[in-house]
Write a structure and sequence with these properties.
Radius of gyration: 19 Å
Largest sheet: 5 strands, antiparallel
Strand content: 15-25%
Structural class: alpha+beta
Shape: globular
Distance between the termini: 26 Å
Strand order of the largest sheet: 1-8-3-6-9
Number of strands: 9
Helix content: 40-55%
Length: 324
């Protein structure tokens, strides 16, 4: 997915607001994950859908500056509007609009009172699988605000996504991915005709973290040395750590370990593989070492984690989402 990094990087961009705050970014800008505050376990989940008013209304229609390191958001605004700042660019949100906020983008929103619509928060793992099947959809990962003249088709797509998210029918996960893909296709088509709606790429740190994530997807099962990833990116491990701290709110090793844990949890929840097999699938030759690795970071052993989930669907239905 080399195109993703290329789409999101513009070396000629002037120094952004986020770059000016880089030294203190991880301390001053909240790094929100999908569910449960600032714990990265939300990456395990597919997506979350809720009404804009549910999150923004109780917060006086104001969303303070923050970033989602492991998730992107797509907002369909159907009434009201407001203003969004993404990095150092300020955009008006009309009463009918589609807003795309990629992972890692620092953003804040001031909604007009009584604004409504839908916000969908999607785990990067889900996006990566969709883009792997349709590489051209990578361009939907650009920050953008698209004014809309017609809502009917997109509203229907978001309604179907929300209904599937709220339900528990057979094939729910596959249906969620299918409906989300339709939305991303709509974003792609809008991006072709509305170049002015997209903002420039982010900064060098953002580009490095994006490319590091791509390398992790390809190699995390068999390669856990930071020197390997830093070398592939033509930077030092210290530089990679600095980029991850600024953009993902954690070290490069923590990002790698998080990806390993996500895969381990998926295998434990959605397959009948033994713990020893899960250890092997995630790159551990010694099941005992995998057990210690998992237990230290999750708080329970792999076997106990599996038993704590009554059914696979339980992992799809998280609560307490963090808003836009």
């Amino acid at each position: 997915m080399d195109g993703i990094a290329d789409l999101l990087h513009n070396s000629s961009q002037t120094r952004s607001w986020s770059e000016r705050m880089e030294a203190d970014a991880s301390r001053h800008i909240p790094h929100y994950f999908l569910y449960g505050g600032e714990e990265p376990d939300g990456e395990l989940d597919l997506l979350h859908v809720e009404a804009i008013r549910n999150r923004s209304g109780p917060n006086n229609w104001s969303i303070r500056p923050h970033t989602h390191p492991d998730h992107m958001q797509v907002l369909l605004v159907t009434q009201g509007g407001g203003e969004i700042v993404m990095e150092d660019r300020r955009f008006a949100i009309p009463a009918r609009a589609l807003v795309v906020v990629p992972s890692g983008i620092v953003h804040q929103i001031e909604f007009d009172p009584d604004t409504d619509g839908t916000v969908t928060t999607v785990a990067l793992g889900c996006i990566e699988k969709i883009v792997a099947q349709a590489p051209n959809l990578a361009e939907t990962l650009q920050p953008a605000v698209f004014p809309l003249t017609e809502l009917a088709d997109l509203s229907a797509d978001f309604r179907r996504l929300k209904a599937e998210f709220d339900g528990a029918a057979q094939g729910r996960r596959a249906a969620l991915v299918a409906h989300l893909t339709c939305i991303l296709v709509a974003v792609q088509r809008l991006s072709i005709t509305r170049e002015d709606a997209r903002i420039a790429a982010s900064d060098r740190n953002y580009d490095l973290v994006t490319r590091y994530r791509e390398l992790l997807e390809a190699h995390f099962r068999h390669e856990k040395r930071l020197d390997f990833y830093a070398g592939a990116l033509a930077i030092t491990p210290a530089r990679l750590n600095a980029a991850c701290k600024a953009r993902a709110g954690c070290t490069a090793s923590q990002l790698m370990h998080g990806r390993v844990l996500v895969e381990a949890k998926r295998q434990l929840l959605y397959t009948n593989s033994s713990v020893a097999v899960v250890a092997s699938l995630t790159g551990f030759d010694d099941p005992a070492y995998f057990n210690r690795f998992f237990t230290q970071r999750v708080g329970v052993s792999p076997g106990a984690y599996r038993k704590s989930v009554e059914r696979p669907g339980a992992a799809e239905r998280p609560t307490a989402p963090v808003g836009p």
